[in-house]
Amino acid sequence: MWFSARSCLVAAALFYASNALPQATSADDSTSDGASAPVACNNSPSLCSRRYNEVTHLGAHNSYALRDASTDNSISGNQYLNATRALDAGLRLLQVQTHQGDTTLQLCHSSCSLLDAGPLEDWLKLINTWMNENPNEVVTLLVVNADNAVPADFQSALVQSGLSERSYVPTTAGATADWPTLQTMIDSNTRFVSFVTNLDYDATAAPAVLPEFDYVFETPFDVQELDGFNCTLDRPSGLDSATNALSQNYLSLANHFKYSSLGTLGISVPDEDNIETVNSKSISEVGALGTHLDACRQEWGGVPNFVLVDFFNAGETIVALDSINDVSDAEGRTQPEDGGSGAGLNAAGRLHSTSFGALVAFGAAVFLL
Ligand SMILES: *[C@@H]1O[C@H](CO)[C@@H](O)[C@H](O)[C@H]1NC(C)=O
Ligand SMILES: *[C@@H]1O[C@H](CO)[C@@H](O)[C@H](O)[C@H]1NC(C)=O
């Protein structure tokens, strides 16, 4: 009985294994001869003068859901490295999923019994610490509001974490072509943008909590095949096409993470086996990040604004990012260790065997049904 209930829960949770969602500089960088060196915004001087909506922000899908020792290498984990490491590496979008806990919003993956990364507020404090230490960075948060929490709950988490003091508040609510430049957002310290699903804008109680689908459209998130990535609008359904969304000044988000099916169980888990291909910079290989971004740029007539990946330190996600942004002067990033396969005893190799063990145990539990 315990097994069946738990198995159902885990199966359901894994099946819905979630969906979904982008640095800066300091003013005085004088060189010894007195001339000012160019200052970087989101790791590049050439991005400072670009508007927020003219940049591709690379994001970590389920950035808190780790496949590491802290979660016993959970097979539902989407990342090897945490959100601070993602920001250090140059990612500027963090996507999370929240569930209603007893008193707080919790970062859980599909179900809190499957993976619970603690209160949203505590995690946001760590992001705020990073924002303090990195004053020239524009960062975006994308929250999947799984239990339909009200806007004030998210505003409260922003206030408690300190992030509300640097949060972006729009002058007029809703999709717009008139986003500020990264430099303007940095100068005015409105460099933390929060999008949340499943709520309406509340300008009074939660001015910094932007309803995602009033601003952003997404491509399909449940991709199971390497040839399944495309640039078709999936959500919000009311907009019927990417062309329509773009004409209404929506920001674009390409979901670029792949699930694989576990046998005949009808369960999907983040696909580790194909991660080098999925996160490849190639612009010709089927299923590659570079190929997907390039296709969307061509189809949309502009760069994708956001792209979400799993296991960001595997493959060549940062190279693909610089390529789509046409950036060649990147600076200030910390190179994370390679998370990809092919090096023998690297993280992915170890985790793969652990995942397999977990999978066998999981299969056995389901079989007991
Ligand atoms: C990530 O891990 C480092 C230590 O390894 C820690 O200092 C940091 O606070 C963590 N960040 C998050 C968001 O968990
Ligand atoms: C994009 O993928 C979705 C989901 O698989 C599919 O429904 C849609 O038809 C695809 N778009 C194109 C143009 O093939």
Automatic annotation (TrEMBL):
Q: Does the UniProt entry include the keyword Chloroplast?
A: no
Q: What is the residue range of the signal peptide feature?
A: 1-20
Q: Name one GO biological process term.
A: lipid metabolic process
Keyword Signal applies: yes
Q: Which controlled-vocabulary keywords does the entry list?
A: Signal
Query: GO MF annotations for this entry?
Result: phosphoric diester hydrolase activity
One family name in Pfam for this protein: PI-PLC_X
Name this protein carries in UniProt: PI-PLC X domain-containing protein
Q: Whose protein is this, by species?
A: Emericellopsis cladophorae
